[in-house]
Amino acid sequence: MEVILKTGGITLDNYRLYEKTPAVLYEDVHLLGNGSLGASVYGGVPYEQILINHDTLWSGQERDKVGKGTLEHLENCRKLIAEGKLKEANNLLNDEMLGYWSEAYQPLGNLYITMGQSGELRSMKQRRILLKETPYEYENYSRILTLKDAVERIEYDQNGIHYTREMFVSFTDQVLAVKLTAQNGVMDFALGMDSPLRHEQLVYGKSSMVGITGRAPDRVEPYEPHFNPPIVYKADETSDALRFAAAARITATDGEVIEEEFRVYVKGASFAVILLSADTNYTGFRMKRKKEESEVFKKCVERIEKASLKTYEKLRKDHIADYQSLYGRVSVDLGEAVTEGLPTSERLKRFSSLEDTALPALVMQYSRYLLIAFSRPGTQPGNLQGIWNPSTCSAWACNYTTNINVEMNYWGAEALGLPECHMPLLEFIKDLSQSGEKSARELYGARGWVTHHNTDIWRMTELAGEDASWAWWPFGGIWLCQHLWQHYEFTKDVHFLKETVYPVLKGAVEFILDYVSRDENGYIITAPSTSPENKFFYTGQRTERDISRIDAENRFSANESDISAICKASTMDITLIRELIENYVSASGVLGYGLEYDEEITDLSMNLLPFQIGKYGQLQEWDKDYEECTPGMGHVSHLYSIYPSSVINAEDTPKLYEAAHMSLLRRMQHGSTRHSWPGAWAICLNARFGDGIQCNAINSQMPERLGASLLVKGVLQIDAIMGWGAGITEMLLQSHTSALHLLPAAAPSWLNGNVKGLRARGGFTVDIKWKTGKLERAVISSVTGGHCKVRYKNTLTEVFVPAGGAVTLDGKLKQKSK
Fold first, then answer.
1. Alpha fucosidase A-like C-terminal domain spans which residues (predicted)?
2. Could you tell me if 757 and 773 are in contact, meaning their C-beta atoms sit under 8 angstroms apart?
3. How many CB atoms lie within 10 A of CB 122?
4. Of 132, 224, 411, 759, whose CA is between 20 and 30 Å from 180?
């Protein structure tokens, strides 16, 4: 049943993902979650598969694999760099000093609902339908995920009966709830479960329940590199891998329930309610756990029994109330919606050629929906795919990648009014600061803590593997520290600053003080150093031969003998150090602490290699003005200084700001990706440069590789949609400099609109309304109160917002009386 919505402005009720067909590919499923329990819904007819994930189900176990050879080779590597032998240093790193892949995030199981089956007696007609040899006739199909309530609803008609399938994942009751209905008729269906992991089916008798128990692999390799065997299981008695369980029960129906050996059947029902719970025996970082799978299953059953004391309607009401307490904080309207009656997949296809101002608004709200769904207090942070993963050997192990991806997942958390959903990452960083102490000591002989390019549920902090261009990244933890400081800047939570931010920043500073060295000119540098995942020609200019072999998106396309990833003092390193020191000094001042390591920090701040401008007028990416191997590289790590950082900005460093802008223009000129996560980063950067036209141009290209779920096709990464939502927010409001900047990069096509509930640094909440492209009204409120500057175009004003109060400004930033 096609849903046609009114045009002329989006309301909160109208934000939804909508399709007229079931999903065939995983990137087209609809995603439900409560932070820990994830459900991927295909919406198939007559055969529904709901893939179940749990945020704590990973391969492997706690381990000690710190590379023993790294420290002994470190000084030799630094010597080679000092002598200008960059390729030799790169080779030494690759051959002797790197590590291994993280463990892999795992799929837990599948819930199957097969319509038309009322028992184990076999039907050739049913078989042919399931094998798709005989078409299954139905009409008026729709599947809709409504963002206002986080409820999925599937509907279709067949033989005069209207079937509905409604479901949600409740944070309040920690279950997936599914309600099936047959209007003007009855239905038969079968319920079953399995898992792609080693598992057992459980048999119950008269319980209306199906279930599985099992355990995760002891080691899993990602889909590349191809190590065999890619999946390893030890014997049960010697394995400390995670145990898991899941249970699903028919808790209400007016039909006949038939229990058979591995399935439950419902016959002649007009409705049925299914509750599912899943869990693992993971108890927390460095905490002991029991190996008995039966204990995990018992917990699942108890959760279902408790939830089943409520009616489906009560479960739904409580779910929506909890969810709306977060989602309802922000609303946005960017103007008339011209394609909202179309399926989301069609809207995405048409966006490059048809202006659809409502789609960016949907993207912003959908990024908020996803953050609530994959990251709630007490859960693990969202990985490369949030909490949704169909594959045992997934892309890049579906891990936490710290040179952009896990951070991008959380770029919008504070500004989009979801600081609670930021907490899983912040707690994770705190754990890494503890596990990373051993890596700092044994890999570098350093104080403090370090983490590298990849990590996992076991809080891996050792070096990653394969290639130095990404694996040599002792600054992953430094980047993550920014999230701690951002949370404080937005919330002004002094208790959090004292108990979490300050000690973690202090440990990161200690590591940096021990890692840096001094070059022949007296500058303090980092070595070895990389600009994550990019490489350069260390021998000079490109040759015609080199140019012919360069591909815009392939960093390995040039002659390997002429390029290196290793240098000293990349701009990314310098930026991260400057930001870390500034934040640490600021935290010490707020808390009234004397500055520890005062002389060392002063020396570092005064003598750190300065930023440099290259021959093209660009901000240099490395210590020298090397030619990039891939000038259109998607990683723009040297522009971290612009976004998400603000070490370089228009107010304080205008010349460097213009040079950074030139760097971005050159990247884009050379084919820098305008979709997936690089496109999202480019939107954020262009917003910081105040270029709404370029932001909107990239907006129009972002859907190119996105499925109907807005996951990236093929690799299924979630960072693109999360970064895209953050970029749209940055177009509407910025607060990284001395003022709250209203509509700094709004797209010219967003003529009329309003946004409510955006957050700004300093603890402020901002509502903005504009008409015919001009500011009409802004409301600044605050729980704690305080002074703030407000900028709109070339007008700047300062206001005082009383605690618990608000100030209203007109289009000229004049304060309006109540």
1. 734-797
2. no
3. 8
4. 132
Distance of CA 802 to the CA centre of its chain: 35
- What integer pLDDT is reported at residue 225 of this predicted model? 65
- The number of C-alpha atoms within 13 Å of 560 and in the hemisphere containing its C-beta is 6
Vertex 20, ends 17 and 25: CA angle to 5°? 75
DSSP 8-30: SS--GGG-EEEESS---SGGGSE
Q: Does pLDDT of 13 surpass 60?
A: no
Instruction: Quote the radius of gyration of the chain (alpha carbons, Å).
Output: 27
CB 191 within 8 A of CB 31: no
Provide the β-strand partners of residue 767: 779
Cα–Cα dist 416/42, whole Å:
29
Which tens digits make up the pLDDT trace of 693-715?
999 999 999 999 999 999 999 99
555 pLDDT higher than 60: no
Reported confidence tier of residue 684, pLDDT bands at 50, 70, 90:
very high
How many other CB atoms sit within 10 Å of the CB of residue 279? 24
3-state SS assignment for residue 189: strand
pLDDT value of position 484: 98
Residue 59 DSSP code: S
pLDDT score for 472: 95
Asked if residue 551 has pLDDT above 60, the reply is: no
The helix (H) or strand (E) run that includes residue 294 is: helix 293-307
Give the bridge partners for 155, in sequence order: 142, 164
CA–CA distance, 338 with 347 (Å, rounded to integer): 9
Residue 810 bridge partners (DSSP): 777
Does residue 602 carry a pLDDT above 50? yes
The 3-state DSSP class for residue 766 equals: strand
The set of long-range contacts for 808-817, using a CB threshold of 8 Å and a minimum separation of 24, is 808/777, 808/778, 808/779, 809/777, 809/778, 809/779, 809/780, 810/776, 810/777, 811/774, 811/775, 811/776, 811/777, 813/778, 816/777
pLDDT digits (tens, 9 = 90+) for 348-359: 999 988 888 999
Total Cβ atoms within 10 A of residue 288: 6
When pLDDT is averaged across residues 29-53 and rounded to a whole number, the result is: 97
Compute the distance between CA of residue 423 and CA of residue 428 in angstroms, rounded to an integer. Answer: 8
Residue with tokens 């991806």: 405
User: For residues 292 and 213, what is the distance between their CA atoms, to the nearest angstrom?
Assistant: 10
* Contact status, residue 142 vs residue 154, Cβ threshold 8 Å: yes
Residue 553 has pLDDT above 60, yes or no: no
Helix (H, G, I), strand (E, B) or coil at 702: helix
d(CA 9, CA 126): 46
pTM, rounded to two decimals? 0.96
Contacts of 260 (CB under 8 A, 6+ apart): 119, 120
* Over residues 18-46, mean pLDDT: 97
As beta bridge partners, residue 791 has: 741, 796
Helix, strand and coil content of the chain, in percent to the nearest 5, comes to 35, 25, 40
Dist. CA 454–CA 170, nearest whole Å: 31
